């Protein structure tokens, strides 16, 4: 870990006291680093590929706030180590899962904290385009420089630049991306239970019902259970964790959006996401009812809705690995939250064969397939993921929902973004922004694992995770039909506040589908 040389001090004219407090708390954290060199650099001179970014004097510091924690934060820090060494810029990274809440509070308390001096970051990474737009219109962000815009235009599809632009001005540059339309499962558990990956929405519903029925089935005449019952006792079709602090409810929002897209198609999704129809339109109400039929029917989720709201997003992943549930809807980036030691594989990986005692490479099986009389199945610590099966869009295949992390520059109250006393200069901030939006950084970051990207300058074959690689190839393809996460693109007070809260109440049975969505509709700004 490189020690922090200094922290930037500037006025909090645009940010609320809650934001100032958080950023003051995190401002002194230094960027962690790894021992690996930048894979894009020369083997003899690792700095050769970074000379274009400049050579800065000792004390040059750029601060960046993100929502990255744990492994994700460590990998981000490792991805910029070589850049720091070669340019002399100290990137001071502070990660907090409260970042989104704090940024939303700045919009709820406009003008508060004027003339208050505190630690604010030069840069931030924001996961919601809707929040970016709200911050830009509140004058809390600075437009990004041309060099950053050129990187985005070169590497990313136009839709990503549009997502980060407000009134034609680029305020947010995509850094990483994810495919949200994945269902995680253990091929080992599926193999031992005799289940197959569904290829249509109806098959997904049928599989859910089959697992519930299998778990409730009595033993046969010989006292043996079905193959499906060789999983952990009481295994449910679905893992569902709704609890996530101030962001509780987003997993249900993801399910609503996924079901609307999968069952009604792109047209209905676009109309709802773009608010061309009300949020409580019949199409959305029907989709939410379908989510309830799939997830909240007896036996579908441990503890039902009440149990799901008490289960964290991370605990749901542990349940998947424990074999207490079969499937978990989550993005390609969810592997960052899986328990240590989890192996992400292809469905026909040799690891699956080793865990099940079968040969998936085409040779003879090492042992006979599992039978009802054998020991309960386990996941073997092995997981994979398949795309949510849905309605195909003409010849382009089923559409998928995507999300991303966007780099923004926090507006400086002094107007020039410089604070020589604390070591930050505009040139250093621009150099960091330009590097983070380059294909070189994207390649370095994806090779560290746990993330995908839509940057077409990245070689996906170098990625170690099969799910992240497939997500990246899908994101890079011009033939893919992608749609941005609807709630992330809505005004922050609606999509990531009222909607999430209402859907949490829906999960526990306090509200029905119409009532929950009507609450979100009522919150839409006039």
From TrEMBL:
Signal peptide per UniProt: 1-30
Keywords from the named record: Signal, Transport
Sequence ranges of Low complexity compositional bias: 216-228
InterPro entries the record matches: Bact_solute-bd_prot1
Membrane keyword on record: no
Disordered as annotated region, ranges: 216-239
PANTHER family to which the protein is assigned, alphabetical: ARABINOSE-BINDING PROTEIN-RELATED, OSMOPROTECTIVE COMPOUNDS-BINDING PROTEIN GGTB
Membership in a protein family: Belongs to the bacterial solute-binding protein 1 family.
Protein name: Alpha-glucoside transport system substrate-binding protein
Species this chain originates from: Actinomyces ruminicola
Source lineage: Bacteria, Bacillati, Actinomycetota, Actinomycetes, Actinomycetales
């Amino acid at each position: 870990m490189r020690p922090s040389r200094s922290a930037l001090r500037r006025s909090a004219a645009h940010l609320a006291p809650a934001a100032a407090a958080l950023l003051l708390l995190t401002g002194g954290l230094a960027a962690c680093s790894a021992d690996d060199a930048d894979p894009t650099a020369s083997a003899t001179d690792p700095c050769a590929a970074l000379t274009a970014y400049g050579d800065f004097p000792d004390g040059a510091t750029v601060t960046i706030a993100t929502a990255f924690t744990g492994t994700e934060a460590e990998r981000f820090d490792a991805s910029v180590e070589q850049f720091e060494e070669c340019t002399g810029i100290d990137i001071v990274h502070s990660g907090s899962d409260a970042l989104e809440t704090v940024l939303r509070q700045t919009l709820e308390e406009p003008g508060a904290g004027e003339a208050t001096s505190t630690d604010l970051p030069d840069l931030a990474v924001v996961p919601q385009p809707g929040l970016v737009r709200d911050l830009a219109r509140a004058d809390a962000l600075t437009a990004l420089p041309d060099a950053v815009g050129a990187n985005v235009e070169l590497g990313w599809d136009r839709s990503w630049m549009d997502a980060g632009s407000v009134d034609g001005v680029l305020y947010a540059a995509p850094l990483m991306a994810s495919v949200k339309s994945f269902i995680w499962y253990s091929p080992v558990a599926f193999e031992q239970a005799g289940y197959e990956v569904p290829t249509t929405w109806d098959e997904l519903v049928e599989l859910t019902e089959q697992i519930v029925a299998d778990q409730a089935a009595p033993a046969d005449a010989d006292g043996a259970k079905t193959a499906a019952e060789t999983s952990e006792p009481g295994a449910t079709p679905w893992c569902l964790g709704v609890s996530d602090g101030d962001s509780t409810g987003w997993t249900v929002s993801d399910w609503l959006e996924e079901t609307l897209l999968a069952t009604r198609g792109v047209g209905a999704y676009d109309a709802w996401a773009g608010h061309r129809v009300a949020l409580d339109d019949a199409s959305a109400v029907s989709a939410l009812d379908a989510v309830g039929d799939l997830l909240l029917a007896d036996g579908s989720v441990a503890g039902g809705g009440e149990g799901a709201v008490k289960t964290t997003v991370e605990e749901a992943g542990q349940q998947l690995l424990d074999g207490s549930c079969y499937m978990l809807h989550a993005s390609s980036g969810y592997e960052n939250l899986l328990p240590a030691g989890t192996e992400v594989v292809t469905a026909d990986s040799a690891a699956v064969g080793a865990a099940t005692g079968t040969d998936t490479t085409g040779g003879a099986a090492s042992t006979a397939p599992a039978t009802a009389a054998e020991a309960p199945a386990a996941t073997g610590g092995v997981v994979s993921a398949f795309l949510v099966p849905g309605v195909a869009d003409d010849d382009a295949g089923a559409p998928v929902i995507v999300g991303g992390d966007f780099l923004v520059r926090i507006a400086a109250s002094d107007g020039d973004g410089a604070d020589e006393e604390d070591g930050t200069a505009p040139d250093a901030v621009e150099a960091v922004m330009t590097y983070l939006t380059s294909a070189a950084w994207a390649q370095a970051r994806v090779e560290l694992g746990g993330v995908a990207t839509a940057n077409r300058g990245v070689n996906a074959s170098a990625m170690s995770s099969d799910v992240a690689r497939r997500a990246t190839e899908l994101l890079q393809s011009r033939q893919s039909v992608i749609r941005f996460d609807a709630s992330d693109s809505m005004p922050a007070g609606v999509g990531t506040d009222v909607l999430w809260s209402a859907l949490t109440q829906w999960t526990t049975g306090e509200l029905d589908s119409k009532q929950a969505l009507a609450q979100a509709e009522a919150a839409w700004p006039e």
